Amino acid sequence: MTQALDDLGAHIKASMTSAVSAHAVHAGELTLDVRADDVYTVTKFLRDDPRCKFTTLIDICGADYPERPKRFDVVYHLLSMQLNHRIRFRVQTDEQAPVPSIANIFPCADWFEREAFDMYGILFSNHPDLRRILTDYGFEGHPLRKDFPMSGHVEVRYDSEQQRVIYEPVKLTQAFRNFDFLSPWEGMTLPGDEKAGEPKP
Q1: Which residues are registered as beta bridge partners of 25?
Q2: Does pTM surpass 0.90?
Q3: What are the beta bridge partners of residue 56?
């Protein structure tokens, strides 16, 4: 199986020389590194080429590497039902450069790309409706970025006096970063402790 996937990767790379920079087989899956500008072309090739036939889009997700100039990976997972193969390809982008949308090729990419935009702030060009999908209207930031605060920016609660949901700045009742790591039992005297220091008969 590994050899078959390696051969398929070599075929794709040879057919898309300028678009695919590398391919590798890991954990029984073929992974391609693709130039962001060529996502649309590569996706159409993977769907239509007779040796590929990746006709099912399983998922599009993001990954954040803030130490890199192009901090985001956009990762695509495709399945070939006819040939029983899976493939993963990824592109790198930053906060400003949009990745071409593939919603025209796979309509289900619409919501996957919206999720990547909502969670990471990854932009997709030519998307039919690029707006948030999981967070609320007016939400600040992108929750799956590594630099997003653990507590968020606002908290939501229902106010019975106003009879509506209200947003308030997060107020932490405890300084979570100032633990002294001492045992809660240190310094306490428990019944029977006085016997611990007595000499044995």
Answers
A1: 30
A2: no
A3: 79
| Burial tier of 75 (Cβ tally within 10 Å: 0-12, 13-18, 19+) | middle
C-alpha closest to that of 126 among 100, 105, 108: 100
How many degrees, rounded to 5, is the angle at CA 110 between CA 136 and CA 153? 25
CATH code of domain 2-129: 3.30.460.80
State the Cα angle at 191 between 195 and 198, rounded to 5°: 10
Tens digit of pLDDT for each residue in 137-176?
Answer: 778 889 999 998 887 778 888 999 999 988 888 876 655 5
For residues 58 and 79, the answer to whether their CB atoms sit within 8 Å is yes
Q: Which residues contact 25 (CB under 8 A, 6 or more apart)?
A: 2, 5, 6, 9, 31
User: What is the DSSP-derived secondary structure letter of residue 199?
Assistant: P
Say how far apart CA 144 and CA 117 lie, in whole Å: 10
Domain boundaries, the chain: 2-129
In angstroms, the CA 101 to CA 73 distance is 15
Single out the residue of 55, 59, 57 nearest to residue 47, CA to CA.
55
Contact 92, 84 (CB under 8 A): no
Instruction: Dump pLDDT digits (tens) for 114-141.
Output: 999 999 999 999 999 999 999 887 788 8
